[in-house]
User: Which sequence fits this backbone?
């Protein structure tokens, strides 16, 4: 059991959720990676975006996206309902703010499958909480193959998505981490390492000062009981 699993002290439950922003060109494996991470970690909630693009075969309202008309989307912009929004390929895409805030308040982390414009906007608004990950394909030909294998789009739409992919890749250096998805298992292990390491940053664990305070108080108590110097003093480096 980690200290944060012990709910006997209120400060031990206080975690500050992180915002894991994942971008890539279409066909680099981002959707599989993000959905697998969400399935494996109860602590992580997937942000479902709103879009004005038409649903693709097999896509469901509220699972892949909330599908909106342009008028509905623009009304949401007007109402300030989005954490960020952008135009991609002539369609609006945006992150509804309320579910993200609710997830953070409940102590969860949130993962986003969004383009570089959205990732940048979120990182500007929440610099402490945002963690940006970019997924690259191992070769350009690999992207084309994956998109064709999906056979979801017409040739013209696929060309458009490939052009957009080049634009997306040009922004790779604004990200905190870059994964080259040569092999799913390795790329997924890398994504997990990033997520798990980021969760351990002191800034995300408000319970740490209290926990350390207790450790030191315990050490001082031991000192009083035994007459031995407190552990902290014994561990301090020698002053010159
Ligand atoms: P697709 O139409 O292939 O599902 O998505 C096209 C692009 O829009 C992808 O790069 C995807 O990451 C991005 N996207 C999806 N949802 C959002 C969003 O809420 N905000 C922004 N900025 N981009 C998004």
Assistant:
């Amino acid at each position: 059991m980690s200290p944060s699993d012990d709910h006997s002290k209120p400060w031990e439950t206080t975690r500050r959720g992180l915002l894991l922003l994942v971008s890539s060109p279409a066909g680099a494996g981002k959707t599989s990676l993000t959905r697998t991470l969400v399935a494996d970690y109860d602590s992580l909630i997937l942000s479902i975006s709103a879009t004005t693009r038409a649903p693709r075969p097999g896509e469901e309202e509220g699972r892949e996206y909330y599908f909106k008309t342009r008028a509905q989307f623009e009304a949401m912009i007007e109402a300030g309902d989005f954490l960020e929004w952008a135009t991609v390929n002539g369609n609006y895409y945006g992150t509804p703010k309320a579910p993200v805030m609710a997830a953070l308040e409940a102590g969860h982390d949130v993962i986003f499958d969004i383009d570089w414009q959205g990732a940048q906007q979120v990182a500007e608004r929440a610099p402490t909480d945002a963690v940006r990950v970019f997924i690259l394909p191992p070769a350009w030909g690999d992207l084309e193959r994956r998109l064709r294998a999906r056979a979801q789009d017409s040739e013209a739409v696929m060309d458009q998505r490939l052009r957009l992919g080049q634009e997306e890749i040009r922004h790779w250096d604004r990200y905190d981490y870059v994964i080259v998805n040569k092999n799913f298992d390795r790329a997924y292990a890398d994504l997990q390492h990033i997520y798990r390491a980021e969760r351990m940053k002191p800034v995300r664990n408000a319970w740490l000062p209290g926990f350390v305070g207790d450790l030191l108080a315990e050490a001082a108590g031991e000192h009083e009981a035994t007459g031995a110097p407190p552990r902290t003093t014994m561990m301090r480096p020698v002053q010159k």
User: Anything to note?
Assistant: Strands lie at 19-23, 44-46, 49-51, 65-67, 82-88, 91-96, 109-113, 130-136, 177-180. Residues 208-226 form the longest helix (19 residues). Residues 1-7, 232-240 have pLDDT under 50 and may be disordered. Residues 26, 49, 53, 84, 86, 88, 93-95, 113-115, 117-118 surround guanosine-5'-monophosphate (CB under 6 Å).
